[in-house]
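Page 37, continued from 36.
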């Protein structure tokens, strides 16, 4: 928590002002009962009207001053807390954005969302409380004791008796409540997880008639959260009235014993009234401390969760002194590359060696799970190699900035991701300042013009969140256009034609050819007809290269390739 609060540094001025304002407010609160005692014991007793008016007016002034200070203090501290929340969310977002895929896998999307929203809100709310109460509570408590003792010392024992009782009650509540607070956020995570899975997987849920089970799963998580919240509220429900009861009993005791002293002539009525008020102020300050003790651990849990994200060591970082590549041509070289997913026993790639030059089409073929996507993920540096090195333009990808590296790459991922916005926006994602002509051109190359023109708003047709309102093949083509508009040195098509029909596929590849002829092109595909004209075909089998060469060469040298071919092409095509 402390670490998080360091972020408050830029609000030092506001916080200082808040503290000063709160000081003034507390002092005015503490002074008022004494003045009131004077009015009663001096003014009323002597029937001195002008004294009463004078002191009364003074009281009004002080009260007004205190109130104004309180208003400003609350306003400023809320403003600070909200700004602080914004800052933390910003930090979180920036951090998460720089996560490697591995770190995403580790934490999970659901919890990252809760942490960025709900956890920050928890911390933010508490920071307002802490800001005001950390000053007000101790000051009122200590000041109250001093002022009370100035009125009368012999009633002080009542307060001395009450305080331990109060602490006992609070302690018991904390003992019961803390574990509940701790699990609250986890339960919220769980709920978010179930909800997210259901929302994104709604089609599967329906298709497999799992709605009832999913409802149960959601209800479980929901009820779990509710139970926990109810238990917490139950503790609160008992705690608050108990505190009030203790306070009221204190008042009764004070009046009882005070009356005896007044009867004996040892104390004046005004003094007793003031004493009662001070006693209340002291107990209220304790209550505030309790609130702090309840809220802080809750926020502490959230703060730890936030820090966990902020403190995550990034696997993939930019080098301190990034190298510049001399020639920007898109030369890709794998030197003895091995790679293993974190926690996996088997390497996903083993001793990969090859070189892909500009103007060449390198196809990668192999069964599912053979490591094709993994291989291209190393070029974009989504993961770092375990041993060996991946060189782009002669420089290890770990020695240039990720920004510089990825600027050279146009990736069409296996799983198409589009963003909400128009089709044009999505294509422009590849290049911010792409002109309308450029967009139309790449859409034409990607064979997307036909279906885009059929839409009423054409390029302005808005794509729903996750691209659910267009077909898989249409998404793939927009995704291809998005990569094309970058005019990158390196193209990576990861199974990017899988959702296209045969005719569109052929047309697209014909149109693509002149566009990408200068670049280094990687084409991952399942079908031999797609890869057979490649300059180089890399055959992957269980993470290892079992052959590199042209279609013809591989037919004579590579058994795995022959098997793939045999399973797809007819005898005459083989010849
Ligand atoms: P392909 O693209 O050839 O179908 P992948 O490169 O996606 O295959 O996967 C290669 C192997 O790595 C598979 O055995 C797969 O289970 C594993 N793998 C892929 N992604 C991950 C990941 N994020 N974490 C752990 N293992 C993974
Ligand atoms: Mg793949």
């Amino acid at each position: 928590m402390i670490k998080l609060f360091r972020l408050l540094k830029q609000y030092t001025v506001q916080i200082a002002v808040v503290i000063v304002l709160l000081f003034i407010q507390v002092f005015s609160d503490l002074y008022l009962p004494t003045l009131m005692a004077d009015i009663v014991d001096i003014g009323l007793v002597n029937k001195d009207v002008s004294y009463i008016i004078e002191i009364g007016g003074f009281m009004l002034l002080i009260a007004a001053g205190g109130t104004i200070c309180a208003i400003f203090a609350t306003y400023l501290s809320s403003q600070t807390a909200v700004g602080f929340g914004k800052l933390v969310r910003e930090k979180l977002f920036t951090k998460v954005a720089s996560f490697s895929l591995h770190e995403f896998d580790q934490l999970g999307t659901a919890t990252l969302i809760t942490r960025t929203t709900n956890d920050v809100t928890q911390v933010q709310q508490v920071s307002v409380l802490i800001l005001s109460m950390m000053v007000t509570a101790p000051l009122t408590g200590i000041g109250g004791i001093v002022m009370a003792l100035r009125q009368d010392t012999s009633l002080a024992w009542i307060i001395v008796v009450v305080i331990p009782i109060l602490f006992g009650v609070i302690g018991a509540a904390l003992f019961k409540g803390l574990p509940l607070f701790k699990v609250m956020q986890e339960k919220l995570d769980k709920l978010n997880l179930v909800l997210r899975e259901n929302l994104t997987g709604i089609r599967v849920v329906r298709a497999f008639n799992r709605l009832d089970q999913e409802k149960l799963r959601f209800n479980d998580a929901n009820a779990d959260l509710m139970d926990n919240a109810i238990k917490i509220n139950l503790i609160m429900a008992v705690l608050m009235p108990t505190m009030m009861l203790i306070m009221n009993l204190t008042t009764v005791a004070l009046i009882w014993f005070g009356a005896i002293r007044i009867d004996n002539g040892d104390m004046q009525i005004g003094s007793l009234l003031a004493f009662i008020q001070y006693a209340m102020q002291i107990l209220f300050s304790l209550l505030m401390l309790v609130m702090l003790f309840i809220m802080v651990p809750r926020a502490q849990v959230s703060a730890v969760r936030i820090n966990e994200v902020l403190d995550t060591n990034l696997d993939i970082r930019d080098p301190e002194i990034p190298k510049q590549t001399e020639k920007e041509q898109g030369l890709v070289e794998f030197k003895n590359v091995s790679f293993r997913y974190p926690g996996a026993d088997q390497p996903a790639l083993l001793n990969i060696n090859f070189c892909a030059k500009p103007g060449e089409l390198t196809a990668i073929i192999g069964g599912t799970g053979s490591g094709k996507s993994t291989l291209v993920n190393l070029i974009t540096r989504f993961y770092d190699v375990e041993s060996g090195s991946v060189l782009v333009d002669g420089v290890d990808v770990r020695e240039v900035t990720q920004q510089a590296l990825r600027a050279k790459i146009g990736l069409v991922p296996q799983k198409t991701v589009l963003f909400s916005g128009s089709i044009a926006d999505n294509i422009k994602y590849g290049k911010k300042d792409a002109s309308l002509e450029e967009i139309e051109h790449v859409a034409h190359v990607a064979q997307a013009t036909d279906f885009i023109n059929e839409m009423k708003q054409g390029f302005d047709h808005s794509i729903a969140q996750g691209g659910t309102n267009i077909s898989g093949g249409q998404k793939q083509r927009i995704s291809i256009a998005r990569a094309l508009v970058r005019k990158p040195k390196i193209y990576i098509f990861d199974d990017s034609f899988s959702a296209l029909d045969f005719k569109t596929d052929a047309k697209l590849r014909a149109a693509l050819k002149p566009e990408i002829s200068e670049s280094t092109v990687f084409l991952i595909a399942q079908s031999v007809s797609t890869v057979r004209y490649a300059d180089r075909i890399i055959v992957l089998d269980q993470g290892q290269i079992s052959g590199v060469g042209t279609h013809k060469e591989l037919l004579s040298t590579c058994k795995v390739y022959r098997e793939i071919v045999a399973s797809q092409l007819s005898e005459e095509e083989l010849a």
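The mean pLDDT is 89. Flag for discussion at group meeting. Residues 105, 341, 344, 348, 366, 368-374 surround adenosine-5'-diphosphate (ligand 1) (CB under 6 Å).
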